[in-house]
């Protein structure tokens, strides 16, 4: 991901996103009565699905990051709906695989 989005702020924030999502999944799972191991599997599969889902947009992210690093600010960044649908589908598919795996 750091190669796709060459912005220092993203490099420092993305690992924290993984940690926060994992902590939230474990906390939610504990509250709902699920095993900690199962929630970690679901969280890791969902974040892997997110990474896979963002793959088609990597060139666009790289272009936008270079523009941001050069000081260019756009009014709006158009994200293709097909890419968004693929990202959502990959997260849902990986989450479903994780649920099936943990049963």
Can you walk me through this structure?
This protein is mostly helical. Helix content is 75%, strand content 0%. It is built from four helices and no strands. α1 packs antiparallel against α2 and α2 runs antiparallel to α4. The chain is elongated, with a radius of gyration of 16 Å. The mean pLDDT is 87.
Please specify the SSE layout and strand pairing.
Blueprint: H1 8-32, H2 36-53, H3 58-69, H4 81-102
Percent of residues in helices comes to: over 70%
Q: For the terminal residues, how far apart are their CA atoms?
A: 31 Å
How many whole angstroms does the radius of gyration measure? 16 Å
What profile does the largest beta sheet have? none
Q: Please count the helical segments.
A: 4
Give the strand content.
under 5%
Spell out the helices and strands N to C.
Answer: HHHH
Give the structural class.
Answer: mainly alpha
Structural features:
103 residues; mainly alpha; 0% strand; elongated
